[in-house]
Amino acid sequence: MKTNHEIRQAVLENYRQAALRDAPGACCSPGCCSPAGLPSANEMSKALGYSENDVAAAPEGANMGLGCGNPQAIAALRPGEVVLDLGAGGGFDCFLAARQVGPEGRVIGVDMTPEMVAKARNNAEKGEFTNVEFRLGEIEALPVADRSVDVILSNCVINLSVDKGAVYREAFRVLKSGGRLAISDVVTLQPLPEAIREDLRQWAGCAAGALSVKELDQILTDAGFVDVRVDVDGRSGEFIKEWAPGTKLEDYVASGRIQARRP
Fold first, then answer.
1. Model confidence over 88-147: pLDDT tens digits?
2. Cβ-Cβ contacts under 8 Å for 101 (sequence gap 6 or more)
3. Domain tally for the chain?
């Protein structure tokens, strides 16, 4: 059995390399660099539901093609809200959220990879985003005050954690009353083979750490959330089959949309 430390180090190194190499799709592949012939980061994002305006609005280099969905589509962000992005990467979703919440709102991106935080901060400076900040930290122990956030976004990150209960308890802690989750993540369709569960490349590649809809529902409910909803995107197999060709990964996992509210 792989240890939690081994898994964490594999994930950290994968995203460190992604930040340094600007490799699109680093999340959704067993290694850091995308295989030749895969779509660009912008093309991948449009396939996930982002618009042409979305991909054009972020600073160059912010969109790294690391997602498995579009949490913006279910967030219903409003002007003046405080938004937190778990695993912000190059800042793509943060910058899109910043446009929606406006100058009276605020966006916080948290990432555990120093190289990603440095990249995101540079992107914010290039784009002159004054209502966005990036903090180095772990999503299991967020560097964010209690009851200070209106909406939490995340895109294909929480599955990378070995302690998802801690992640959702932290999310509950930092949300205001009535605050909500809008998350895109990978969920299992059937139990994963042991070979995938034990493969560090598949942990770093967004597959091995995925949970079922039932497991996620229970974790969210145990954390205190209400109005829990997890919807599976049946079309996501089209891009998931490119993550690890030849493994039939698309038979085991899919992209999911996770929504919940703190009462």
1. 999 999 999 999 999 999 999 999 999 999 999 999 999 999 999 999 999 999 999 999
2. 77, 78, 79, 80, 81, 82, 83, 107, 131
3. 1
First-to-last C-alpha distance (Å) of the chain: 38
Rounded Cα–Cα distance for residues 235 and 205 (Å): 19
In sign, the C-alpha dihedral spanning 64, 92, 189, 225 is positive
Residue 212 has a CB neighbour count (10 Å cut-off) of 16
* Range(s) of the domain holding residue 195: 4-261
Torsions phi, psi for 187 (to 5 deg): -125, 155
The 3-state secondary structure of 107-167 reads EEEEECCHHHHHHHHHHHHHHCCCCEEEEECECCECCCCCCCEEEEEEECCHHHCCCHHHH
The pLDDT tens digits of the residues spanning 184-229 come to: 999 999 999 999 999 999 999 999 999 999 999 999 999 999 999 9
- Residue 130, Cβ neighbours under 10 Å: how many? 11
On whether the CB atoms of residues 132 and 111 are closer than 8 A, the answer is: no
- The model scores a pTM over 0.85: yes
The enclosing domain of 247 has a CATH number of 3.40.50.150
CA distance to 109, 117, 195, per residue, from 243 (Å): 26, 25, 16
